Input
Amino acid sequence: MKDAVDRRMGRAPSDRALLPPRPQDRDLPLDAHLHTDLSPDSDVPIDVYAALAVERGIAELAITDHVDFEPGAPAYDFVDFATRERVVREAAERWADRVAIRFGCELTYERRHEAVIREHLLGHRYDFTIGSVHIGVESSFTKGRAEAHVSSGTFHEVVAPYFAEVEAAARSGLFDTLGHLDVVKRYTHPWLTPADFADAPDVYEPVLRALVESGTGLEVNTSGLRQGPRETYPAPWVVARFRELGGALVTAGSDAHWVESFGYGLGDGYRVAADAGFGTLAFRRGGTDRVAVQIPVGAGREEIPSQR
Output
């Protein structure tokens, strides 16, 4: 199923054998971004993640399966809300004495659907929400189109529409956190490199300021460490700039879609946050108030490569 969705979205099917080797992260308090077989691009039962979390000492998980609002998009009507909530909350009960499991979602943000997204969130109770801009089936960044698109203009001309949509998501104030801010790096690689993005801090600045002004968190998404860019989404220097601008809310998640990527690079994500000056992750367990999840002491000791 996952490879079929990847092909539909114009991406190369996932090759798990290409995951860069790295030690498994252990004894961390939270992975706040996980996809199960309730997403069309994952094949992992929730209990598999729970068992891995117990084995590795990951104390809390946010199950954040996809929710799309564009008719025909892979997660538009893949699984209904009631089923997703029931499966996750029943798993939370089964594993309650070993690992905490929260019912979240990753909502695909598109400005033309903002009113529908707002209505959905008003009518459906989640513990934790991620809002993300994804590369849709008609996007110029899909496989087979990306190279020509990147060659069609300057850096700013190529990426400006994507970052404008991300800024709108940040400014909407709809979500607990903004997911994988610059995941567009995945689709422009190798024609645009992380260094190219680092040379254009002006495309990030409006997004970061919008996050601060709306009180939305910034996710340190570690999936980029196993993908072409080989750095977090966003890069460490962006997280540091967010902090400089007054950003107070940061989360970290592996964005796993299959077993092998569970928790992948999560410790690096914690270190990126710690090195930027954050002592806690901002999380929500339902209700109106965020909770502070302590970043383990020493999380910032290892050097994380950055283009700046």
Summary: The chain has eleven helices and nine strands. The beta strands are 31-34, 60-67, 100-108, 128-132, 177-178, 217-221, 250-253, 280-284, 290-294. Residues 17 and 260 are 9 Å apart (CA to CA).
